[in-house]
Specification:
By secondary structure, the protein is an alpha+beta fold. The protein has a four-stranded antiparallel beta sheet. Helix 6 packs antiparallel against helix 7.
């Protein structure tokens, strides 16, 4: 989710635009305490508005929703989780497939292949792979993918590998801040 806090509902540019709910609440609270009619707007990763909160009750409702959503996801995950260290030969075909082809590797939906019947180019793939990332993080990660995908096809393989290393290092520094 992307959270945007506006000092007033009429503002075009948000005072906060990020993925951290607590920081959005802090920003909203600051403007509320300074007599502004601030508002938090919640957007999904396709930049579609999914929720809007302009008072304490709405913020508490969304906080409860987030908490319950996390708890439910954790319970469902634990119920469906496959033991990756068990006896592979004795597992069902479905469990073996879950180990060989885990869902977290499936970033491109089947519909993308129908949308691009001539094949997917780098930018087409990034439309799906980087969807949940924003800003500098998306930019750096996109370059890592780009140079990995073309490794040795345009420039020397070592040159592309060093570019991957450089962008990956910058990504680590950015995420560490």
């Amino acid at each position: 989710m992307q959270y945007r806090v506006y000092r007033t509902p009429a503002m075009q540019k948000p005072d906060y635009d990020g993925e951290e709910w607590q920081r959005a609440i802090d920003c909203w609270s600051y403007w509320q305490s300074n007599q502004h009619n601030s508002i938090i707007k919640v957007f999904d990763f396709n930049d579609v508005l999914v929720y809007s909160a302009n008072n304490k009750e709405y913020i508490e409702d969304w906080s409860r929703y987030l908490l319950m959503n996390r708890v439910e996801k954790r319970i469902i995950k634990e119920m469906k989780e496959v033991d990756f260290h068990g006896d592979f030969d004795k597992m069902s075909d479905d469990d073996q497939n879950a180990i060989i082809n885990p869902k977290h590797y499936k970033m491109i939906p089947k519909s993308a292949y129908e949308k691009f019947p001539e094949g997917l180019e780098y930018i087409d793939l990034m439309e799906y792979i980087l969807k949940q990332h924003r800003g500098v993080k998306a930019h750096l990660l996109g370059h890592v993918f780009k140079y990995a995908m073309r490794l040795g096809k345009k420039d020397a393989a070592l040159q592309d590998a060093k570019k991957i290393e450089w962008y990956a290092s910058r990504l680590v520094k950015f995420l560490s801040q």
